[in-house]
Amino acid sequence: MNCLRKRLFLSDDLKSIYDTQLFKSTPITIIWFDENIDEDLNDQLQNIHDHIFITTDRPTFLDYIQTMVNEAIVVLSGAISQTVLPIIHDNKQINSIYIFCIQDSKYKYLCDIYSKIDSIHTEYNLLFESLEKNIKLIMKQQISLNLFDQSGQSTQDLTRESSEFLWYQLLREYIMKMVQTNDTKKVMLEKFRLYYRTNKTYLSKVDEFEQTYITNDAIKWYTKGTFLFKIVNKALRAQDIEALLAVRYYVVDLCKCLKEECENFRDYSEDVIQVYRGQTLSDLELDRLKNSIGQLISTNGFLSTTRSLDIASLFATNTIFMINIKTQLEGVVFADVRSHRETPHEEEILFDLATIFKILEVEYDDSNKSI
């Protein structure tokens, strides 16, 4: 897959894009089912994620599982897990399952039976740490691919997927042309506080952002995986134009910082570098990729990759993207963000919003059983 110089741009007319409720998307929920719940559990979970569902009632839990439409992480008590796992395990919306108990050895055998069990914990701190890491990983994985069918003769002939491909190109051009003012920042902060009005932990982080943020720190705030990372990616995935306009002050800063870092990188980098991204794709998505050799492809967000194949393999279930970057190619914006990360060993290369690639080939690796 190669980076392309071309960026598609149609017009400044966004009137046809639907209006939506601010930050409407709920990409993943932590569901906690235990007959005995600590009173402060809700506050503790709110420190790591803003969408949680806690219940001590079995029918309520099962009804929620059966009717949910978004992805979920489930936490079960040890005693409950033995009877509940056979019922819920195959639900496609469940990403992973954790067991919280007093004696982990008593339930380890379940890991051999149920593949979605991530881990078993006896301490809150270790469980919360594992949940937080998993949520960040899932949110990165949820960046979807948009293919562009170049055979279309007009925008009216575009498939829905091709239309979404163009939507992100148009969006980026639009917000980058908008005037940034202090009022733009104030509106953004007001929206943050409204959204997190019941979460003291996140409100304190919003206060910290207001007091300490400068444009040059945009990448650092994004790679920290804080509320900014979550809100920006939620809005992008949902094509939530109202939310994106509300956070454009920060998105524009991030795009500008990536461009500046990219220009600095070109001064000392080799002409071509290879980066990788591990991802989980459905059989349908894999088939579409196989049938799209030579087509253009874009993502619905800022694409995170790594220069380490080993790191990418840790995040991959069945797919690894190998991306060749011609570093001197104008119009392609990416940045080596290691110096901005708390975990520089991941060797992250972050691509700008709506970067366009071209699919050169799709191969099956029999040794790793992956694409």
UniProtKB/TrEMBL annotation:
Molecular function in Gene Ontology: NAD+-protein-arginine ADP-ribosyltransferase activity; nucleotidyltransferase activity
Gene3D superfamilies hit by this protein: Toxin ADP-ribosyltransferase, Chain A, domain 1 (3.90.176.10)
Catalytic reaction equation(s): L-arginyl-[protein] + NAD(+) = N(omega)-(ADP-D-ribosyl)-L-arginyl-[protein] + nicotinamide + H(+)
Domain of life: Eukaryota
Family: Belongs to the Arg-specific ADP-ribosyltransferase family.
EC number annotated for this UniProt entry: 2.4.2.31
Listed name of the protein: NAD(P)(+)--arginine ADP-ribosyltransferase
Listed InterPro entries: ART
UniProt keyword terms in alphabetical order: Glycosyltransferase, NAD, NADP, Nucleotidyltransferase, Transferase
Pfam families assigned: ART (PF01129)
Natural source organism: Adineta steineri
Enzyme class at the top of the EC tree: transferase
